[in-house]
Structure formats: C-alpha cells, structure tokens
Design brief:
With 220 residues, this protein is of the alpha+beta class. The protein has one domain. The protein is 26% helix and 37% strand. The chain is built from five helices and twelve strands. The strands form two sheets. It has a seven-stranded mixed sheet. A five-stranded antiparallel sheet has the order 6-5-4-2-10. Helix 3 runs antiparallel to helix 4. The N and C termini lie far apart (44 Å). The relative contact order is 0.18.
Amino acid sequence: MKRWIGLILAVCILLFGGCGRATEQSECKDAEDDAPTIYSKPLIYLYPEEETEVSVKLDFVGKLTVTYPAYGDIWEVTAQPDGTLRNHADGKEYAYLFWEGEGMRDFDFSEGFVIKGEDAAEFLQEQLTEMGLTVRESNEFIVYWLPRMQENQYNLVSFQWENYEEAAKLEITPEPDNILRVFMAFKGIDKPIEIPEQKLPKLTREGFTVVEWGGTEIEG
C-alpha cells in the first residue's frame, strides 16, 4: 500500500510540479516572459509659476497597484510654485503624486550605459543633474534605486522615452510649458558589454514645469 501511495505522489509531482523535469523548458520560459513588468515609484512633481488648480489624468496600459494620494480617475490639486500640492479629494498636503503599476512592455536597450555597481551613485548624480533635476528630485531618485544597483557587478541602464510615454500617458490641465519624464530601465549583468551611449534631454525649467521619475529593474 505504501508503495502505491509513493508512486502516486511521484506521478503528481512530475505532472503538477511547475517547471520540473516533466514540464517543457520552453513553457517555463514563456511563463517567466509573461510576468508583468513593475513600474516602480513614478513620482510626479508640479511647479506652476503661481498658485494654480491642476488636474492630472493617468492613462496606464496595465494595472495600477498603488497610488498616493488615492487616484480614482483623476487627481485634482492646488499646486504652489515650490511644488507643494493640496489634494482636493481629502484636503491634505502632498509633495508629489505617486503611483506604481504592473504592465507588459518591451524595453529598448539598444542605447544606454554600462556602469559598475560601485559607481552607480556617481553615475546617477551626474546624469540626473545633466537632465535638469533638482538636488531634491535627484536625491529621492538615488536613495530609491541605489540599493538595488550597487549590489550588481555591472548595470546595463537605458532611459525609456517613447516606450514609457506609450505605456503611461499623462494628461495635465493646464498644459505644462515644460515637462520631463525620466523612466530608467536597468538590469544587472556579470561583465561589461559594448553599447552606444545614450544622449539624454535637458529640461528647461521655465513656466509651468512638470517633472516625473520612475523606473524598473529587469530580472534575468
């Protein structure tokens, strides 16, 4: 009897044990490829020239997993020139609008940068400053991503522009005079590779200015 029970258990493990020996490797890979991409911590800063009523709509191709303040189908805030926001829905004060989500998207690594993990802080400081982020914005970006990047031997980094715009459209009223949406995709690699260096835009901070930053770490 014990022999039959053991045999039945072994068969069950082979049939239903996920990516085990009885499962085709291609099926396992497809399952991994179908895993959603995590769009981590996009923060939206609003800087009008004077106190302004602003509405922000986010059209994300995917599932929003968390927002702060809570996002129904729109954010409506009173924005101050220093970036302080008062949310109409709850009357509370915020420094920025925050969201995260899960979506399916291929990221472009045809251009970018290869940097050592130990050089990640210096790299981010240099590139974010060059793009026009303030010290505060850069610091908030770096303290979030640095712990992940510095653990890698090397990082393959590429900032996403058209891809990100297609995945997460923003509709802001009144329309900003200048906007910069920084979304960094990166993955850890064991050794350096050759890749054309990416040319990055420079934000002009004049008039009603909007800054957003976020990113994703590609596993594997």
